[in-house]
Amino acid sequence: MRKLLLLWLLLCLVFSPLPLQALISLEEEEKIGKEVLQEVSRQTELIQDQEVLYYINSLGGFLQKRGVGFSPFNFQFFLIKDPIFNAFSVPGGYIFLNSGIFDPLETEDELASILGHEMAHNLARHVAKRIETIKKMQIATTAATLAAILFGGGKAGEIAGITSTALAQTKLLAYSRQDEEEADRIGFEIISKAGFNPQAMVRVMERMIKLSDFAIELNYRYLLSHPLSQERYVYLKNLAERTKNLPMKDQYAFSHDEFYFKRIKTRVKALSEDPADLLVKLRSELREAEIKGREDPYLRYTFALVLARARFFKSAEEEMLRALKELPQKPYYLLDLAELYYLSGNYAQALTVLQGIKIDESLPIAKILNTKVKYLTARCLAETGSLEKAYKLFQELYEDNLVNQDYIFFYYFGLLCSRLDKQGEAHFYFGRHYELKGDFRTASYHFKKALSFLPKDTKMYKEAEEKVKVYEGKREKP
């Protein structure tokens, strides 16, 4: 009840009464989006794997640049640790995916089709129109039903305190069939212009239609807010038919690498599912493959990732090295080995592997891979006492704005600055860490402390000062 009350107070603040028939402004949408992001960050577990997030956001940026052109929103994508198939878009260009959405996807264009669809909802301002409906309803009902739509049920919905009554009321605020068809049409255009195969949207929808009754029960919250009618399916299929005779589009128009998408999907699975359950399942599958004489290096690679997450580092190293002998010679598999060594505390070996990684700069994913190399190198250098070298790399990452939503990055940057006696910067980065986690009380404390150390004429001081003003009114009651 306390969490629901907090959500109610937040929404009362955000969704203040508006003039009748007025559509909220872009500035108001941005404010709402930030508030929702902070609430989601506080009440759910966001996956903080730097490479996975950078890949999803880079794919979204690729769609925006190639498929949208001008947009009033700077789209940002986040990944919630939740096995339920769900994705939702909130005002201001903030788009959330549940980790469970990766499970049925087979190719990069299918993920692009989901991102494109959610981007389309924002571009068509469907959420803003929903808010126009919300303001005409009683505020208690509005808070519950809006929460149900945003969190979409599952673990996130349970944390938000959503009741079954609220879930039943989501139909009042769900996207209309017209909204969905418009988002399908715009999303179809986005992925087509970006060079992806538009048939991917049809493939994803066909899988939703073919779900068993049990699977539909598991995913019904997504279907409540994204109505999947036969008419909508026919409409989308007809759109796809028009492209049938055109030159074949690419299923991997962004990464140009089917193995990389498969690896990202595997990382999401390894990071979001229970490692004990996964280990039992993977051991069984490996045993069965060995009995049949069908060695599967990718299965062994997945097993190594899960072993590492469960902190069985020695076994993880053995399985990873066996898998690397059979996997394609791709630099990102060596990144996984380096990360394994880092996690196990073998920093010297991790640095040796990182220094030997050669990345072809012409690859579309080169920037993603180079960022991870730099990040892991900085973490290893910090652990081995090369603090100034580590600081330089952390600073480059921060200035390039490549990890601006990674609260773990800011935590380690704060620790490093503290060890270097850069106390103003340390408190500032700790403030960013807690801000991203939704702990506004602790964030405000660190931003205030930063002000007592930082020179007043610096950009960081001014930013910390603004943060203090923003969060003074957001302190949680004990």
What would you note in describing this structure?
- This protein has helices at 2-14, 26-43, 50-68, 108-123, 126-134, 139-151, 154-159, 164-168, 177-193, 199-209, 213-218, 220-225, 230-241, 258-272, 275-291, 297-309, 313-326, 331-344, 347-355, 366-383, 387-399, 407-419, 423-437, 440-451, 459-471; strands spanning 76-80, 87-90, 94-98.
- With 478 residues, it is mostly helical.
- Strands 1-3-2 form a 3-stranded mixed sheet, with helices on both faces.
- A hairpin with a 3-residue loop joins strand 2 and strand 3 (94-98).
How would you summarize the topology of this molecule?
Blueprint: H1 2-14, H2 26-43, H3 50-68, E1 76-80, E2 87-90, E3 94-98, H4 108-123, H5 126-134, H6 139-151, H7 154-159, H8 164-168, H9 177-193, H10 199-209, H11 213-218, H12 220-225, H13 230-241, H14 258-272, H15 275-291, H16 297-309, H17 313-326, H18 331-344, H19 347-355, H20 366-383, H21 387-399, H22 407-419, H23 423-437, H24 440-451, H25 459-471
Parallel strand pairs: 1-3
Antiparallel strand pairs: 2-3
Helix pairs in contact: 1-2, 1-6, 3-9, 3-20, 4-9, 4-10, 9-13, 10-13, 14-16, 15-16, 16-17, 17-18, 18-19, 18-20, 19-20, 20-21, 21-22, 22-23, 23-24, 24-25
